[in-house]
Amino acid sequence: MTSPVKAQLQTDSLAATVKDSFHLEIKPAPAPAFRTTATGLVVPVVMIGYGVAALRWHPLSDLNHSTNKEIQEDHSGFHTTVDSYLQFAPAAAVYVLNAAGVHGKHNFRDRTIILGISAVFTAGSVELVKHASHETRPDGSDNLSFPSGHTATAFATAEFLRQEYKDVSPWYGIAGYAAATATGALRMYNNKHWFSDVVAGAGFGILSTKAAYWVYPWIQRKLFRDTNKHASTVILPYYNTQWHSAGLSIAFFGR
Fold first, then answer.
1. How far apart are CA 237 and CA 245, in angstroms?
2. Residue 192 near residue 71 (C-beta atoms within 8 A)
3. What is the pLDDT of residues 220-242, one digit of tens each?
4. Count of the separate structural domains present in the chain
5. Which of 199, 212, 207, 206 is nearest to 239 (CA)?
6. What is the pTM of this model?
């Protein structure tokens, strides 16, 4: 083999090696398995149990009426729509923090899907129980008082904020739960919910987000396997508040 040919082959071999070295297929890291403490599950379950008990047990239902009476006596003309926006504040904070460079546990796609799953779980459970309980609101406007949907959403998003940033600082979670607690209080001050509605709503919201983090690793393994190198599929859950319907939306992206 002549020297020029040998040199060319060595050059081609080196080029191929360099190309292979930089031709890396980057795959998203698998979502870590969700873990929680016994207290983390017992507390929201007890909150839901308290709300259910208040539907039939007179000492707790009497507490509902006495609490509502005291609030309305001192703040009879109170009304605000802040609670309708404050319920989403913890979720918005997750995206604002990431945009500001304070990164949480998951990337944009993963945390968005987790939030969507939580929303479906929250809305589905709340709507089911509302129509099953037929609890009349304090202002008598309808029979969908139990549990509080605003409070459930607020605590679901607060738990979402806590899960994403608990390894960065516990204060993010504390701030989220403070906003959620304020949402629940405002629902009572607006004369839309009893105390037990708010307590149970918080329990439903917390459990829904915990359930979303628990099922997502399984969903990630099943739905994001690289079976087609020329296209990718993203499946997002959704909930339509106007029509009270939930489902999945599918988006295809070419590479």
1. 11
2. no
3. 887 776 544 444 545 555 555 44
4. 1
5. 212
6. 0.78
